[in-house]
Every structure is written in C-alpha cells, then in structure tokens.
C-alpha cells in the first residue's frame, strides 16, 4: 500500500510550488477531501477504520487482560513500549518513502537518509516530548481501565475526552465554544455519570473466572486518560499547525520521545518478574498480547491519517460510532447486562456527541 497522502488528486500538484526538500503537510481542504485509496475518499476510509479500531481495541485489550490467569499475564508497560517501537518504525518507513519520492532541490546532493535525519532531528523536535510523555501515561492507563471496566462502560466513560479536549482547546488554542457546545458538554458529563453509577451498582467485581474487576480503579484510570488525551491531542495539534513538518516525521519524533518513558516501567516489570532484559519484555506475550499491541499500532497510525485527511470533529463522530459497536459486542461476547440506566446514559452520551458536532 502506498502512503495514503501520496494518493492525493492531481489538482494538488498542478498548482504546487517548486519542489522543496521537506515534505509539507499543508494540503488544502479541497485536496484533503480528494485524497483517495482504491478510488474511495481516504477521509471516510480512515474514519470508518478508526471507529472499528476503537471498538476492537477495547474488546481485545479487555479480553487480553481478563481471560488469562494473573500469574501468566503479560506486562502492560512492555506492550506500550513495543507499540511505540513498531509505530515509530512504520512511521519512519513512510516518512523515508515520502522524502524519497520528493524531487530534490536543484543543486542539492543530500541523500534521502540525510534529509530524513535532518527533518527528524530538527531544532523544534523537542516540542513532541510533551505529548509523547502524556501519551505514554495514557496508553498505560488504558490497560488499567480495560482491566477493571467492562468494554461498554469503558468506551462510554472515555467519551469524557471530548470535554477535556474542548477545555484545553479553549485554554491553549484560544478557541471559543458556542452555548450549544457547552450544553452538549454538560450533557456528556451527565450521561457518563449515569453510566458510572449503574456500572458500579450492577457489574461490580463480576469479571471473568480469572479476574476480579475494580470499577472505581477503572474510572480513576479513564478520568486521568481523558485528561492526558485532551492535553496531548491539543498540544500535538498546536505543534502540527505551527510548523510545516511532515506528519509522519512528527509521528517518528513522537515515538522517539516516547521510547525512554515507555521503557523505564517495562524494565521495572522485567526485573520484578526476575527476568533478564531485553527478552523478559516479551514474557507471556501470546496471541492476545500481540493482537492488542498491533491494534494499538494501527490506531496510532489511523489517528495520524484522520488528523491529516479529516478533522477532530469527524474523529468525534467515529468514536461515538465505536460506542455502538462495543456495546453490541459486549452484549454478544461478554453477556453484558443491559440496564435501562445504561441505555439512558449511553443515549445521552451519543446525543451529546451529535449535538457537539453540529455546525
Ligand atoms: O484516545 P485518543 O484519541 O487520545 O488516543 C490517541 C492514541 O493515538 C494514543 O494511543 C496515541 O499514542 C496515538 N497517537 C499516535 N500518533 C499521533 C497521535 C496519537 O500514535 N500522532
């Protein structure tokens, strides 16, 4: 598969400026819409894929953490580290391919390797260290949440990130929100509150045969993850919009800065298990662990494509779609008990998401 952004319509090249060494990310809105993959608008492919990926991740992660005996459990910290390693490597290959396919500036003899090296270690690369550390926290917290909450409750509660994203957008980007959007955010908080109360009351501690769930711990983890999601997302947006660097180069920088903070807890886990580094990282890494890691890798890459070819508003829609997918899967796979208050709470969250996304 070619890197998706290379599939943009010819309209983008007909009026393109003279070739420059850095691959620019400033695709006009009409050309973003025109980007296609196998003839379908990439914008919609990425959004649908993100919705399915979001639902799949919560289900796969929950299964991987709750159906295996705790003594044979893989390390979540190792999974987060391996995720960053794989995502960074894939982003690097795409970034290199994109630099390779860009015409060189006249008179420049720099090789693709030296150009990509210069792009990645640019003077402002340190800016990615902030979202990188926040995302490492968030990705670890997701495991705590998935271990202690059923998939439907996790998915609904995680919608609170729309609220944190809005607040950080107002604080950091100076965005103004309409009264309708503030109302939608209040409704969102209300809906999540209803789901939390019913979940604590009716599903408390009823995990799989190997596993006891602690909803309060799960809610605390989701709340913190919503905070980091909002802050990291808005910060990433700020860095992306204030520079001309390629999205895939930014992704490589994000992964590079994630490696050390992701590795430290993983090494602690390896030592606690009495294993040696680095092979101990993969202790108990079976099918479900790899499935979780690869689904997360896919999610990180699609998130990048969604930011580029769609926008955060449409990303909100994709996430709300994933609530419905997770909900149906929870009932079918985990015999999740549907109560009227869950339906009410989830309905309010979906309605609030719809209201928030109104033009
Ligand atoms: O829940 P949320 O939308 O905040 O999750 C974003 C996920 O996508 C995180 O796991 C983060 O590590 C990943 N991501 C990424 N590359 C980006 C932005 C986010 O891998 N450029």
Automatic annotation (TrEMBL):
Its main location: membrane. The chain crosses the membrane at residues 42-62, 182-201, 213-236, 248-267, 287-307, 314-334, 340-357. It is a multi-pass membrane protein. It holds the Pfam family Nuc_sug_transp. Keywords: Membrane, Transmembrane, Transmembrane helix. It is found in: Membrane. One of its GO terms (molecular function) is pyrimidine nucleotide-sugar transmembrane transporter activity. It comes from the Eukaryota. Residues 1-24 are annotated as: Disordered. Residues 1-15 have a biased composition (Low complexity). InterPro entries: EmrE-like, Nuc_sug_transpt. This is UDP-galactose transporter. It comes from Sphaerobolus stellatus (strain SS14).
């Amino acid at each position: 598969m070619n890197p998706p952004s290379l599939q943009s319509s010819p309209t983008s090249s007909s009026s393109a400026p003279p070739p420059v060494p850095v691959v620019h990310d400033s695709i006009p809105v009409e050309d973003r819409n025109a980007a296609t993959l196998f003839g379908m608008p990439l914008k919609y492919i990425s959004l649908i894929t993100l919705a399915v990926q979001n639902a799949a991740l919560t289900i796969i992660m929950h299964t991987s953490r709750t159906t295996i005996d705790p003594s044979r459990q893989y390390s979540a910290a190792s999974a987060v580290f391996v995720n960053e390693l794989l995502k960074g490597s894939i982003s690097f290959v795409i970034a290199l391919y994109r630099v390779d396919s860009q015409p060189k500036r006249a008179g420049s003899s720099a090789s693709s390797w030296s150009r990509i090296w210069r792009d990645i270690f640019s003077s402002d690369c340190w800016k990615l260290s902030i979202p990188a550390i926040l995302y490492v926290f968030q990705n670890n917290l997701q495991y705590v949440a998935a271990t202690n909450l059923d998939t439907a409750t996790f998915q609904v509660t995680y919608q609170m990130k729309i609220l944190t994203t809005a607040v950080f957008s107002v604080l950091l980007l100076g965005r103004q929100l309409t009264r309708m959007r503030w109302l939608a955010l209040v409704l969102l908080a209300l809906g999540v509150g209803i789901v939390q109360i019913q979940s604590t009351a009716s599903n408390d501690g009823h995990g799989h045969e190997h596993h006891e769930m602690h909803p309060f711990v799960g809610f605390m983890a989701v709340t913190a993850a919503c905070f980091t999601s909002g802050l990291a997302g808005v910060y990433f947006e700020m860095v992306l919009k204030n520079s001309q660097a390629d999205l895939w180069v930014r992704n490589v920088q994000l992964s590079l800065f994630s490696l050390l903070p992701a590795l430290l807890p993983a090494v602690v886990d390896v030592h606690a298990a009495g294993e040696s580094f680095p092979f101990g990282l993969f202790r108990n890494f079976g099918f479900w662990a790899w499935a979780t890691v690869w689904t997360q890798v896919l999610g990180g890459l699609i998130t990048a494509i969604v930011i580029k070819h769609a926008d955060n508003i449409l990303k909100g829609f994709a996430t709300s779609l994933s609530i419905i997918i997770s909900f149906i899967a929870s009932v079918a796979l985990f015999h999740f008990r549907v109560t009227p208050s869950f339906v009410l709470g989830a309905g309010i969250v979906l309605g609030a998401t719809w209201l928030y996304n109104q033009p």
